[in-house]
User: What shape does this take?
Amino acid sequence: MSPQNKPLDIAIIRCERTQESCPGTSCLLSFQEKKHTFRNYDPQTRLVGFFSCGGCPGRRIFRLLRTLKEETNVKIIHISSCILKEEPFPKCLHKKDIINSVKKLGFKVVLGTDNKWEIELQSKRNRDTPYSKDDPILEGSEHW
Ligand code: SF4
Assistant: This one.
């Protein structure tokens, strides 16, 4: 396969705590069916990493991303909806640091892995405590 025809490789980072009760089905099906934040990907796009942050405060992020950089051609990292969402899970206090670490290592960040984050974001827009427009968590995001 020529370099131009190489499939795009992506990876997903998920929350270690949520992993105790979530097998990841929603993220994996969204990717497989090319829905939500995966909807613009070519059918050839490969998911070559699906890993947790390693526990608060994102203990394994740096090591895993470094390995990903060395061993794969991943350019895009999706931050799972369970890291971003604030209901019904306990809010992740480290999500902005996690997102910034990913960006600092040169990966493009896409926020969300299924429609749950989209729904929460939409509902926050309509509530008393929306994210402010310049909240860094929304920087460079592709929600819809
Ligand atoms: S740092 Fe955030 S994403 Fe990681 S386990 Fe803790 S709450 Fe979950």
Remarks:
- The two ends are 32 Å apart (CA to CA).
- The pocket of iron/sulfur cluster is lined by residues 15-17, 53, 55-58, 83, 92, 94 (CB under 6 Å).
